[in-house]
Amino acid sequence: MKKIIIALACMTLAITSMQAQEFTLEYNIGYGLYGMSDLKGALKDAAGSGLKGVKTTDNFPGNFTHNFRVGIQQEQHQIGLTYSHQNTSGQNHLADPTGEYKLKIKNTGNQLGVFYRFHCLEGKISPYFELASGIVFNNCKMEEYIRVDAEVQQEKSTLVGVNFFLQPAIGVRYKISTFAAIIASVGYEWDPTGKLHLKGNKDMKSSYYADWSGLRVSAGIVTYFKMK
């Protein structure tokens, strides 16, 4: 994984030495599906070993993603930096007139990496191939709430950790002017496992990891600025 990131960084340096460059700014909004098998398992185990009647009401569904990119384009080659934000959550819940039980897990992932995109054509419409790679900073908040009559117990903790990610994709670009284009893509994100640990204490490792692996679709706009 580190070799892939180093290779993409070297390509960035190579492209920046070329002529007729364009500086690009890009924003994409998309939708992602997430694996989260460990955290789903945590909810299932908690529901089965706790109070009778507890149900999983939210099980880490897909959600919207936001992606920002800055890059350099030289003819059919484009390379640069990418930042993405994504989040999902799960919840067990039980409530009746005598009390309430709730276990909520919310995980947020902030990605930072590099990308390379090859445009098959230089015309108005161009399909492209893309590869992005980098790291995901996870922030997983866990909250357990119990209320029996007027008595309340509440526990909160935060797990953090870092994953590597690799995301190949295919897409298409449509230039609406010399300085702007709209794009759409579909890809798959793969996250090798990385254990979460208690925030502030790396020695307190959990048995969970945040798996963001899954389908990604997105659409956005790119603006171009001539550099030379």
Number of helices: 2
Calculate the terminal CA-CA distance, rounded to whole Å: 33 Å
Strand content: over 45%
According to DSSP, the number of beta strands is 11
Helix content bin: 10-25%
Based on helices, strands and strand pairing, what is the structural class?
Answer: mainly beta
User: Residue ranges: pLDDT <50 for 5 or more in a row?
Assistant: none
Strand order of the largest sheet: 1-3-4-5-6-7-8-11
Task: Please tell me about this protein's structure.
- 12% of the residues lie in helices and 66% in strands.
- The chain is mainly beta.
- It has an eight-stranded antiparallel beta barrel.
- A hairpin with a 2-residue loop joins strand 4 and strand 5 (99-119).
- The longest helix is centred in the first third of the chain and has 15 residues, at 2-16.
Explain the layout of strands and helices.
Layout: H1 2-16, E1 22-32, H2 37-49, E2 55-59, E3 63-74, E4 77-96, E5 99-119, E6 125-148, E7 151-175, E8 180-189, E9 195-198, E10 205-209, E11 214-226
Antiparallel strand pairs: 1-3, 1-11, 2-4, 3-4, 4-5, 5-6, 6-7, 7-8, 7-9, 8-11, 9-10
Concise overview:
The chain has two helices and eleven strands.
Core attributes:
228 residues; mainly beta; eight-stranded antiparallel β-barrel; 2 helices; 66% strand; elongated
